[in-house]
Amino acid sequence: MGSSCEKTCIVLATYNEASNLQTLLPALRQILPDGYVIVVDDNSPDGTPQLLEELARTDSHIVPVIRAGKQGYGSAVLAGFQRALEMDAQCLVTLDADFSHDPAAIPSLLAALAQADIAIGSRYYQGVRVLNWHVSRLLLSLFANRYVRAILGIPVADATSGYRAYRRGAVEAILTSRIDSQGYSFLVEILYRAYRRGMRIVEVPIIYSERREGQSKMSKGVIFEAMIRPWLLRFGRQA
Ligand SMILES: Nc1nc2c(ncn2[C@@H]2O[C@H](COP(=O)(O)OP(=O)(O)OP(=O)(O)O)[C@@H](O)[C@H]2O)c(=O)[nH]1
Ligand SMILES: [Mg+2]
């Protein structure tokens, strides 16, 4: 595979993704048979916790982390990071559980860690590769990335992609500071903190697709935070 990861943990944040997980988990297990899949679920009412407990009984590489209630994407990813570090992961991968991120790209993201601390599965590096998105959603995402780049200067085309691979050291560096953001801003904040700490960041082109099943969690609050947060990061704590 070209990566130097002795142990890889894939971190999935899930809320009401049971129908996607039924097919995603087998796909992930097949792509990375030695890897572990940590699924942080916020007690989804669609039966995800029960599904995970059942799968974990027969597959020790599926690691459910069930939390009491919905606490947001960012805090779920952080909980997954903590668990992965406790499990001695050398490399960590995050992706959405709704098939927007094709698991087939995981090996190339991990391979990119040979020369980087963070590899971003990038929709906008060397072109735009987004399938089945309404044009307004695409424009919002492209604008958000321009906005973030202008304010924070992180030298990447896609700072809001949730499809990423991290070396352990990058996650440890990220976890040393308090992370305030939720939503897309969370992804920007952790990337910015890693960038400020001198972590090497590369982009690997991916094709992004609209979610397969279930519902979006995009909201006005998420967009509002995305407008404000880059300014708070730029002029706030530099830790
Ligand atoms: N544990 C947990 N997971 C969450 C929460 N909110 C979102 N997620 C998961 O985080 C991932 C990304 O969320 P999405 O709803 O797909 O967000 P999005 O990609 O911006 O929106 P879509 O256009 O619907 O795909 C998915 O796997 C969600 O199930 C939450 O509060 N808790
Ligand atoms: Mg999604």
Description:
By secondary structure, the chain is α/β, with parallel strands linked by helices. The chain has a single domain, classed as Spore Coat Polysaccharide Biosynthesis Protein SpsA, Chain A (Alpha-Beta Complex). It has eight helices and nine strands. The protein has a seven-stranded mixed β-sheet, sandwiched between helices. A two-stranded parallel ribbon has the order 6-9. Helix 1 links the parallel strand 1 and strand 2. Helix 6 crosses helix 7. The longest helix is centred in the middle third of the chain and has 18 residues. It is globular. The model has no long low-confidence stretch (mean pLDDT 94). Bound molecules: guanosine-5'-triphosphate and magnesium ion (MG). The site of guanosine-5'-triphosphate (GTP) has 20 residues, from strand 1, strand 2 and helix 3.
Distance between the first and last residues' Cα: 35 Å
Helix/strand class: alpha/beta
Number of H- or I-type helical stretches? 8
Strand content: 15-25%
| Rg, Å, rounded | 17 Å
User: CATH homologous superfamily?
Assistant: Spore Coat Polysaccharide Biosynthesis Protein SpsA, Chain A
Please count the beta strands (DSSP E, at least 2 residues each).
Answer: 9
Please tell me the overall pLDDT: 94
SSE order: EHEHEHEHEEHEHHEEH
